[in-house]
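Quick one, probably user error.
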């Protein structure tokens, strides 16, 4: 099995509703890293109001509910107020704790998160099963040309 979709797990980190324009911080979904070596956290911003102060970072913890969440050193990235429609990522390889999450810090003016996903890789067991909200996808191996 060489298809990427069967060797990774896709999970929604932040819903479109939670990412709507605002100034409140957004705590991404908690991700269980058991059985995976790493995770690529991808966040795409929508409209960002001039003067917005926005950044992203990764957190980890040993508790399933992340009551012990701690920022991961060096993962913080500043999102400029002219970074509309831009994509940022954090790639965590072998985090030291079992649970991780994305954190979006928003302040002073509206910033919208258009989408945010986790892609876990290095699965100990394949094929993987994607999160329940990832409801559609197809794999095509050497497809012929023609009507899609």
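Nope, works fine. Designed sequence:
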């Amino acid at each position: 099995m060489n298809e990427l979709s069967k060797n990774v797990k896709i999970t929604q980190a932040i819903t479109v509703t939670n990412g709507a324009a605002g100034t409140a911080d957004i705590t991404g979904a908690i991700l269980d890293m058991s059985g995976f070596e790493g995770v690529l956290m991808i966040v795409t911003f929508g409209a960002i109001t001039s003067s917005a102060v926005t950044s992203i970072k990764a957190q980890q913890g040993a508790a399933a509910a992340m009551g012990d969440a701690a920022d991961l050193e060096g993962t913080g990235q500043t999102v400029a107020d002219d970074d509309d429609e831009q994509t940022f990522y954090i790639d965590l390889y072998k985090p030291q704790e079992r649970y991780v999450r994305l954190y979006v810090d928003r302040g002073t003016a509206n910033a919208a998160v258009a989408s945010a996903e986790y892609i876990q890789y290095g699965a100990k067991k394949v094929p993987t099963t994607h999160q329940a909200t990832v409801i559609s996808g197809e794999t095509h191996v050497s497809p012929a040309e023609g009507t899609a």
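The chain has no helices and ten strands.
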